Amino acid sequence: MMITVDQIARSFSLKQVMLALALSMSLLTLTVVQADIGAPEKEELKFGFIKLTDMAPLAIAYEKGFFEDEGLYVTLEAQANWKVLLDGVIDGQLDGAHMLAGQPLAATIGFGTKAHIVTPFSMDLNGNGITVSNTIWEQMKPNIPMQDGKPVHPIKADALKPIVEKYKAEGKPFNMGMVFPVSTHNYELRYWLAAGGIHPGFYDPKNGDIKGQLKADALLSVTPPPQMPATLEAGTIYGYCVGEPWNQQAVFKGIGVPVITDYEIWKDNPEKVFGLTDEFTKKYPNTTARIVKALIRAGHWLDENNNANRAEAVKILAKSEYVGADAEVIANSMTGTFEYEKGDKREVPDFNVFFRYNATYPYYSDAIWYLTQMRRWGQIAEAHDDAWYEQTAKSVYRPDIYAIAAKELIEKGTLKAEDFPNFATETGYKPATNAFIDGKTYDGRKPNEYLEQFDIGLKKDEKI
């Protein structure tokens, strides 16, 4: 039976009706604000990773039950190298993975394997270093200022340049290792070398060159992270850029000296991301948001109370199924210190950052920096306007998904609003910064203007 407004009015006073309507609207609003992310569409998941300490958010989310809190039953599986890992995500053998920040971007624009990969979560800041062999270090030391018997940091590539020039004059290749063509390590090593006047070489994919050694003074090639120390010890390479614990491993083995951290090359630089296919995020939106929720909690756990949980994290990461290196080696960087030359251990509290400084937020400006480096070294063969960089970044980096996960953590009281960017005003662009070893200013809204500042590297319409 239909009840009319007239009948309601005869039964209740106008004041009672208005009060009831107001209460109904309040309850409706409350329901909308506090609406939970729906049940996961896919509960059993397999994630890939490489044995590096910055895979820590995955290990912690698993070990601390954060995935299970979201109704997700996750298997973590170490991968042989970055290509195998990427291929596993693309073909569906892996549902997602710990990835190099450049991998989703490179795949989406078609440098290497073509696939639309996205990231709703940045895994960490900093975490890498550049190590040289003992022989090279001894040759560099006369070129480095000293204070109280110790080298003055940061050490610039200017100290390496005379050695590279000597090798070149003698017809000897100066070989260095990095972990993958679109890795942060490749771009950081190139940045450091170029800032010291050492040309790291160009790529020319249109003409079939994917080695990246054209016109190079130092020849960079790919070496998987766990193999870096052994390759250095064998003399196949004279130095490398890699994440931990493989710089500290060289110190412990007495075969090399880390000369600089990436924190000193670019303060608080983005490092790894969590990558999934665009198709996965559309097919399983609730699952995706729940994955991000668990990873945010893991990042927060790793940094909370001034890194109070790092000692426990080190023990977890030392397990063979994760990083599998000695806990002492992992602790050398994970607990806020970094050892350069043997016995020269210094305080570097932000060497590994997993949550503070909005480390987990996927900023467009971070994505655009990687794209500028791809362009600088020829991996992007053609010039593009600033709008292209922005559009590409927005197709890969997904702060909208991140915000869904973060807002629910705030609403549930798990984390606080001040732990995150202000989602009402956040643009996805960090302020312009000159916190680089060469003092250049980077503004993510002006990528072409940024490229114009460099003496070494492509800009404007230049081609190889």
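[next item in queue]
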Amino acid sequence: MRILKLSAFLVMAAFVLILTGCIENPDNEAASESGEAEETDAPAVEEGEEVVNIGYSGPLSGAAAHYGERARNGLTLAIEEINENGGFEVDGKTYKFQLTSLDDKYLPNETASNAKRLLQENETPIIFAPHSGGIQAMQVFNEQENFLIGAYSSEPAVTEAGNELTVRIPPSYDIYLEPFTSYVMEKHGTKLAALPTASQYGKDWTEKLLPFWEEEGGEVVYNSSIDFSKDTDFFTLVTNALKEDPDVMFIGGASEPTAKLAKQARELGFDGGFIVMDQAKFNEMEKVTGTYDTFEGSAGVTPLIHSDYPGTKEFIEKYKAAHGEDPGSEAGYHYLAMYAFMEAMKAAGSVDDPSAIREHMQEGLDAVPEDKQVYTIKKIDENGGFQTELRVAAVEDGEVVTMETDE
């Protein structure tokens, strides 16, 4: 009866969103086609074995759908491997994983609703989410409801909030401010036009970068944002920005719309460099533009395919075999994180005590096999953030190159 009431509530909520225009939803989609949870294939469980449910809420429709799907693909690949290898043992009992995912269309309120549904219907001790707005929406109640957040966001506030049941998976984006700024200032000049995504993540990135840019002697000549869920033609915004004659443009969000923005800026005559927020990846944007030349003289994060951690090459091969394309960092980090959480469960002696699992995350990281280390993460800090060495990239002469940094 509770499930029926919950379903009725969700249907009514979706109907209300349709009537109100679902303001942040691309293509005016009110929900995924069915609104149903998607599950990985149920693992083959032998007598005495049990299943641990893992939750995922992310954008699986709309402008950021590819981003959300790639993040989920990393989890799925890890879970399928773990199950096919016989699962894992905790306190003498064998467990296997099952992933249940829900589309939140990049809307924080949907993420919160999805989390409650995953808890009620699947009793998930861990719920992954790949955007800061959704993560922060869950942080309002995750400690009270007793579940861990696998937070795929570089937003520093995710861990600065002091939430004891949050693990931030990628490095904080503030480590990129200095190398990105130094590179493009030296190469192009000091006048910056900001046109990032209008999401909370984009706003927070902007609030960090723009003051830093000015502290380094730069000038912000234009500051606006783009709602990629509603805007698909950026002509007016880019034209207005270019009227201020910027040397550099600050852009970013999901890779596909960010690439379209950069392409249009070039078509309108912009010949400076881009600072690309860490969510967008050069190799994924090149699929849209057809060439790296669009990003000549630009700074961004190093694509996974240009990295060389112990498990990177093997993961890329497995991912390509499964999905027919190169993986991005969101897939690689989720794959690694799933293994780290499994090892933390083993160290904690529990699959359903979020506090104990969190307390043993360092042991989990230490125990991740080398061939699963798509990235090498040696430490989780006291606030719950994975610490990864700094690697940044630029596009020079039509190719992605690794930039030298002080770290």
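[queue empty]
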